[in-house]
Request: fold
Amino acid sequence: AIRSLREISNNLSPQVLNDFGLARGIQNFISRSAALHSVRIRFTTNLRAERFDTDIEVILYRVVCELINNSLKHSGCSEINLSLSSGGDTLTLELGDRYSGGCGFNPAAVMDCGMGLSNIVSRVHSINGHCNVEGAKGKGMHAAIRVNVRGEASAAAGARRRTAARRRKRR
Reply:
């Protein structure tokens, strides 16, 4: 029970994410997932030690986990391709199993019957990001997410953290 609780806690906000950042946190999650599945997960990034607002890192980490888990669970694919890149003020995340034999789905239909995809879109919107998920039967899936890491999302998230910290100090 303790091991299970530790695993749940680590998946929500892993220590490696807090200590080393988004790219390393995602790589760690992929390594753990690859040990449990026969699907090859290819991850490319131009990030090194860059750090972003905590809300942005945690939300994008959770989104990546959800997308990878959905592909592993539902797509029947043999390979997942994930890229994370920073250019200017924009952080871009792309994940797809479309080119590796994924079975695909209709995103509009899934939005109405499941929580996973609607939660992803909601999380991305909470940091003022944009999310586009495409899929079709027999074609696999492709998700593209873009977040402005220097604009309103970072400022709003920082303000929320400072307010929460002030409230904790008052107690």
